[in-house]
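Input:
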Amino acid sequence: MRQVEDPLVLITGASAGIGRACALAFAAEGWSVAVGARRADRLETLRGELEAAGAPRVFHRVLDVTDRKSVAAFRNGLLETLGPPDCLVNNAGLARLVERLDEGEGEAWREMIETNLVGVLHMVRTFLPGMEERGRGHIVMIGSIAGRQAYAGGSVYCATKRALQSLCRALRLETLGKGIRVTSVDPGMVETEFSLVRFRGDETKASGVYEGFRPLEAEDVAACVLFAATRPPHVNLDEILVMPTAQADPWHLHREESMR
Ligand SMILES: NC(=O)c1ccc[n+]([C@@H]2O[C@H](COP(=O)([O-])OP(=O)(O)OC[C@H]3O[C@@H](n4cnc5c(N)ncnc54)[C@H](OP(=O)(O)O)[C@@H]3O)[C@@H](O)[C@H]2O)c1
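Output:
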């Protein structure tokens, strides 16, 4: 198989953090880029940045991955303009709070499960059949170290990321022989809006997460996604675990007084 001419990547949750960094990294590599998220103003700004970075074609539209109608409208708009994606990056995701399961709230659980898991199912269900028909395509999941090693206070978030691992394995089996690649990129701690969202806008709590410690940057993760997507079609990177040097696992971080 040869590499595609004018390849198109679709990235969910591209209004911030890792998704936005992925969009810019692919654009700089000359890919056309389709981006979705719920905040329209952010996408509008990003559109200009993607064009400036070198994306030949850009599609942006409000997308809520938890809402099937929103996913269908996004798909229809994309197919009418740029066509089907060669690579789908399922990045949209969030954690809510750090709390014991027996103290948790149903609403936060639902939000995590619907975004991190059901949202991915909607996206894959929508775009995988076309990839199979064309005999090529790449599905990337942004998983997490949390999907490999659970931590206290993160039960539901960890469970959603663990589920993505099973989903990736099942997808590799179901699409075997159809030219489909499935990659899970699993980061440790990355400094984005993730902690701000997790602590519902509490900036003190959010910045405390990264105090005295050098986390990954969104661009570090984007580089891994781009690397996986730009391997030759016969090469599938199944899993990439990318950690900050100062983080050994979810519980062991090296914090320095001088960085506080
Ligand atoms: N930061 C970390 O330490 C870390 C570590 C491991 C894995 N991850 C994973 O990396 C992914 C990206 O997180 P991030 O760190 O970049 O966080 P972020 O800065 O908060 O970005 C999350 C993105 O997801 C979007 N999003 C949330 N709900 C959505 C929905 N229903 N539909 C569409 N888009 C939605 C947000 O946009 P809107 O609000 O505009 O919709 C935003 O663009 C997540 O899957 C997260 O679990 C993060």
